[in-house]
Amino acid sequence: MSSFFPPFDPFDKDKDEADRRRRRGRGRLPIRLVVPNLITLLALCLGLTAIRMAFEGRYEQAVGAIVLAALLDGLDGRIARFLKATSRFGAELDSLSDFVSFGCAPALVLYSWSLHDVRSFGWIAALLFAIAAALRLARFNVMLLSDDKPAWQANFFVGVPAPAGAIAVLLPVTLAQVDRIFVPPAIAAPLVAAYVILIGVLMVSRVPTFSGKKMGGIRRDLVVPLFVLFVLLAGLTVNFPFEMLAIVTVIYLACIPLGWRAWNRLSSLHGVVDEDVIGDLGDDAIDEDFDGPPEDDKAR
What membrane topology was assigned to this protein in its record (predicted)? Predict the structure, then answer.
């Protein structure tokens, strides 16, 4: 005869955890917990669509799809935190989506566009860039965020973030779209391959780059000029999208040495050595989801 009071091990939580998850699975899931995942999946679809556009020779659409995926990648983590819908599942989904959209897709677009002219060397360059994106994401996923990290370090990324790296590596394709008559000659393919490898190295390097996360407020007297500048830039982007994308990319690459200089100046001011640098790798992986949400919010 079984006992009315079965033995209970307070350290055996597997059964209770399984029962709790099963009960939770039968309930309804708030829409707010699903929205960030839908944005991530949309970015993934755009990355895969860019690969298809490259196979069809539609490089304008391929570049546009990757740029739009980068914009969505910057939104999903912030929306998840705003809706309190962050979770480990959403973090892993975002990381896998980033590898496809900002690692595989740019590499295949570049190989289809020009790198195939140098055959194996071009394919090796594409492989190195895709692997660099994977290594960057993997490094972030196993990286423990430091709670006592100085506030000034939040202004920097360690290396070039994956979305920025994907847009930067597509600069040759972007420039080719500015002049529709221009066709990259075979002699340019080795230069493109070397440029692709350089961007891949920057992604996995420890070179500090500006993050822009902790930008300060806007002075009241500059609000109206800022609105005018925004309208001007929006109009130029709509009418000259590839020209503006090329200009922004060149400015970003030119700011990398400035970010390195600013980091060295601040690190010297605060007495930080290289071994003490933890760094924030940005929004290209799990968007600070290591802090963990409450159990009711683990749907993303």
Answer: Multi-pass membrane protein
